[in-house]
Amino acid sequence: MYLLALLTVFGVAFAVPLTAPSTEVFSAPTEEERAAAYVLPRDTIPTFYDVRLTLNPDNEEYFTGAVDIRILPLIVTNQITLHAMAMNISAADIEVYAESAPTVNLFQSHTLATNDTHLFRITLNRNMTVLQPHTIRIKHYVGHYAENMFGVYVSTYTSGGTTHKLITSQLQPTFARRAFPCYDEPAIKAIFRTTIYSPPAYGVVRSNMPVRAQSLKPEIPGYAKHEFDDTLVMSTYLLAYLVSNLDYVDNAMDTPFKDLYRVSFRVYSRPDTQNTAMFALEFGQKNMVELEKYTEFEYEFPKLDKAAVPDFAAGAMENWGLVIYREVALLVTEGVTTTATKQNVGRIICHENVHQWFGNEVGPLSWTYTWLNEGFANFFENFATDMVVPEWRMMDQFVLALQNVFQSDAVLSVNPMTHPVYTPAEILGTFNAVAYQKSGSVIRMMQHFLTPEVFRKGLVTYIRNNTRDAASPLDLYASLQEALDASDHSIPYPLLDVMDRWVNQGGFPVLTVTRSASAGQSIVVEQVRYLTDNTLRSNDRWHVPINWVLSTNPDFSDTSPQNWIPPAFPARSFDIPGLSNASWYIINKQQTGYYRVNYDTRNWAALATALNNSHEVIHLLNRAQLIDDAFNLARNGRLGYEYAFRISSYLVKEKDYIPWGAANPAFTYLDTVLSSSSQYNLFQHYLLNLTAPLYKELGFDAADEEEHVTPYFRNIILDLNCRHGNPDCITKAQEKLEAFRTNPEQRLNPDIQTLVYCSGLRGGSAENFNFLWDMYLASQDSSEQSILLNAMGCTSNEERRTFYMNQVISETSPVREQDRHTILVSVTNAGPNSTEAALDFVIKNFAEIQPRVQGLTGTTNILNAFARRLTSEAHYKKIDEFFDLHQGIFTAGELASISGIRENIQASITWSKQNADVVESWLTDNYGSSSAPALVSSLIVLISIMVTIFNY
Ligand SMILES: *[C@@H]1O[C@H](CO)[C@@H](O)[C@H](O)[C@H]1NC(C)=O
Ligand SMILES: *[C@@H]1O[C@H](CO)[C@@H](O)[C@H](O)[C@H]1NC(C)=O
Ligand SMILES: *[C@@H]1O[C@H](CO)[C@@H](O)[C@H](O)[C@H]1NC(C)=O
Ligand SMILES: *[C@@H]1O[C@H](CO)[C@@H](O)[C@H](O)[C@H]1NC(C)=O
Ligand SMILES: *[C@@H]1O[C@H](CO)[C@@H](O)[C@H](O)[C@H]1NC(C)=O
Fold first, then answer.
1. 613 CA to middle of ligand 4, Å?
2. Where on the tree of life does the source sit, at the highest rank (predicted)?
3. Do 328 and 419 lie in a common domain?
4. What is the pLDDT of residues 530-551, one digit of tens each?
5. How much is the pTM?
6. For residues 699 and 715, what is the distance between their CA atoms, to the nearest angstrom?
7. Per-state percent for the chain, helix, strand, coil, to nearest 5
8. Same structural domain for residues 305 and 175?
9. CA dist., res. 49 & res. 196, Å (int)
10. Domain co-membership, 518 together with 500
């Protein structure tokens, strides 16, 4: 599963807060009790399911089904326990037979849990013999479409003025049990035979496998019958259904992308959007070819469908043979889709392709190991996109994602990668930044410390040896260790010992490195866990692989470890030959290790000098590392702010996007905490000064042949300039909007649309807002809708803003529920007044917002946006009020986000007390002179844009 919003989310990582802000005293059930209540007993296992579903999109009340499940008892028992959810099953429709006596019904009674265990228990009138096959026959049941898009559900779209319906599904992680009674755990795999009966008016009916050649099932009058071939052995969560009138392009058709891949490859989307499916058709096939080469393992299903549906909870879902996407995650309209969205489409297609091996061939033993699926998908969505489009520089961009996840992973309450989960809510909660970005980053570290070829060979074994089976991290380590032992490379510890701490402890270390004596060759390295709240302490330690570069030989290419910092010692010293001749040194080449590095101030000063003199000497990923580490270590009280600012002054010469991508979040943070400072205008001068040469160079208009990442770069620079009062920037943006309004045929470069629209709304013009709102209503293109939704929150017109926010809860809102959180996120990010308005709106209306902001991370996205913007005591009081008002209805994820907000507000208050003086005096010393550029009234310019949307 791919979650669209995760990359920018702060704080979803801690699904269950350690300090529950509740006053209720209750004793939480122990892990054993929860395991006993939620995990299937495994005294019977299924081998084969024959599922028949009657799905009629025109009857949204219910659907019906029937299922035969062939099972094997593993012990002598008269109990069968499986899952069923939101279903009506009557006793008269349940039968159980021993295969040896197919006429003797053994069924005696059944119970169906009404709580979240979803256990469906059948009691027989006699014991079953071990390993004697039996069949459970549910002749008829009534199921219910999921209103929240988890399960089987109905979706609609309009075309040519009429409304069309379709049925689709999202069964991961615990919703196959909503489709039919089943053993709904990832490790309990079986073969599935599916038949769908649906009205003949719905011509396109798909499931995991192709249509079966010979019919086995009877007809049902009035319905068309769609029988599919038996699947390979697979998990329940990977099943998928589609009943629709979608249209497709495929690799058998006469297009430039015919037969790029040996397997039938189709892209389904709404009729008349087939031109937008071409990118997916090309990229998806090329990517599958690369993945087969890398894994030395052929994709095993006879077809691979990719389907774009109008409503979808996640970004995409890797169902084996029938991958389902949100439209914005699969379709690309040239000239309308932004570079960032197109990159995301490539990345998401690759993510789901990777899952066909990591997840579908080899699945996790339980959702406790979600990272085995999502961590690899996250790593390879970059690594294997890079194989197809190296010019996108995905592995360079990876470092920005790593730096981003440091933020979520720097709280004490964060979950480790391996994290036991039992209830459906806990299981859903593991699909978070830890399982995705952190795990992907740790896997990247592993690739470098094992070396890329050992890593690849180990993964080839992991897939080959565990295919059609479920794996634990131990299986992964065994395969990698075997490859390591067979190679020339070695590491000083068993891989299991190294990974144990990275995987079973939350967080990550910061190394503090000091030269032991100015003329000596040795350094002292100390490791502690890095925590945003620096008053907290932890004894966690890791095996940390390190390597270094000296100024005397600035070669950053070999990323294998030169030494390790073991967990046993808080500090370790060792020699670095040649150190005494070096003016500076850097640890962690290309930031492949998942940790921060702090140095003695002499080295920081030398690094600042080196960067300001000739920054190209230092690898661009280490330039990004130095900026991100310096500003975060300063914020964390581990380094004087003046060093971070001295490092940053070199940016005036930096022409690569990646270091700017690292600097931008640091600036956003300072912007928030300094916004009420008396020296705020000096901070603005500083930003305009740093960006002045690039503002000139990049401008508003894209050059014909520019680098793939340049639009991201341009957006950072334009955003900083328009936001912080460069009058030229504001004027140009408004002229562009005016020109577009006058002549809408003349489309703007999509990459700058959000920025331009936003600037046009800042002045408060209701006409501009209405123009964009009308455009939204008229648009059928999901990427265009997304640009507009993100921009419209920028309006400073109170009446329009209220109108816009009301679209979240209005009965007649034209905005799809999956997209509604964007409205509140964009208002929250638009500037101080808008943040207040959004906060008041959410406090007042949360009970109505909650059920209407659908999708996986709807409400938490909104709350996480607040976490980045709220800073004051007054905000803290409002959050208390918010909490008291809606106590009873918060989910675990929402509670976690609220504690994240509180933690952040506290941190901002502390920051101001500890750092405001230093920062203000550095700004005064360096930018306090009269050479400051002229600023437009800061009233207009305070209103900011959510910059992250441009990056991801
Ligand atoms: C769920 O309901 C069953 C009875 O149907 C009960 O035995 C069990 O304790 C309940 N479990 C939880 C976790 O509430
Ligand atoms: C079924 O097996 C259990 C455990 O072996 C035993 O205690 C029970 O008496 C048996 N019941 C029947 C009806 O044979
Ligand atoms: C994988 O399978 C091969 C062949 O059966 C075997 O030689 C090898 O030891 C296995 N490796 C692991 C790590 O299980
Ligand atoms: C930026 O500041 C430096 C001094 O700190 C000054 O020399 C330079 O002229 C400034 N550049 C701009 C474009 O204001
Ligand atoms: C913010 O609100 C205050 C008070 O309502 C108003 O005076 C000010 O102009 C607003 N600022 C912006 C940027 O709209």
1. 16
2. Eukaryota
3. no
4. 998 888 899 999 999 999 999 9
5. 0.93
6. 10
7. 45, 20, 35
8. yes
9. 14
10. no
